[in-house]
Amino acid sequence: MINLRSLDLNLLVTLDVLLTERNVTRAARRLNYSQPSVSVHLAKLRDMFGDPLLLPGPRGMQATARAEELRQPLREALESLERAVTPGRPFNPAESEHTWRVAASDSSGATILLPAMTAIRAAAPGTRLAVLDLVPSHIAKQAEQGEVDLAFHTEEGSPPGLRRRKLFAERYVLAGRVGHPHLRPGLTLAEFCELEHVMMSPDRGGFHGATDDVLANAGLKRKVVLSVPHFLLMLSVLASTDLVAMLPSRLVRNTQALQVIEPPLDVPGYDMVMRWHERSHRDPAHQWLREIIATLA
């Protein structure tokens, strides 16, 4: 039985970081300790719990079963303690030097963050915003470990276990360069299939998407001649070639180099949501950022 009165809280903080980093050197860097100091803490923790806790492995240190049992309760306990001792004061954006980290694709960056940037900079000129590449499979872990504050993702496929707020419902339009010889209102489905298409591939290099699923159900197929990993490249391709693309309407709302028409088929749209971890839900700075983004999106 561990005596709480004699418990060194610093040891638990070290254990929390070690269980996240699984590496003594990285843990020492995060804690601003020397590596020998972290090793001493780990030795004391092993003695305290009567368990090795972390063992050498091929890809860093591996947590024992006891350490895995401790990880989540320890994280929650430390967060509760931090909230208890932190003064609750309102967030003042004009005086803040806060740094936020958000995960976004190039399309959500253009349609969500860009419209909010002017307002954020005007209201909170001392703050900073880091935009990280959106990797859907990493969102939950990044949010849990505090590596990202917000993530923008479609409702479908969005990771469970995070707070959410719907920002908008998106639909698809057909776009091509201004003056395209075959892009006109009233385009028939047969003419649509004969056009040469470019698509942003969700599986990086694929030539089949939601539009192709709709066409396949009708026994039809379009000509997808180019697959790209980012919407930014796609917009440049559309402006300089005769290729066309099915795009989210917000992405081409104010693009002067492109003309946009309603497609001759109904491709289901999607809901764009903002996701964040419970640990940040009540933080005044986080609440302010969420509200300003949601309002302007």
Automatic annotation (TrEMBL):
Residues 7-64 form the HTH lysR-type domain. Keywords: DNA-binding, Transcription, Transcription regulation. One of its GO terms (molecular function) is DNA binding. It comes from the Bacteria. Signal peptide: none annotated. InterPro entries: LysR-type_TF (IPR050389), LysR_HTH_N (IPR000847), LysR_subst-bd (IPR005119), WH-like_DNA-bd_sf (IPR036388), WH_DNA-bd_sf (IPR036390). Belongs to the LysR transcriptional regulatory family. This is LysR family transcriptional regulator.
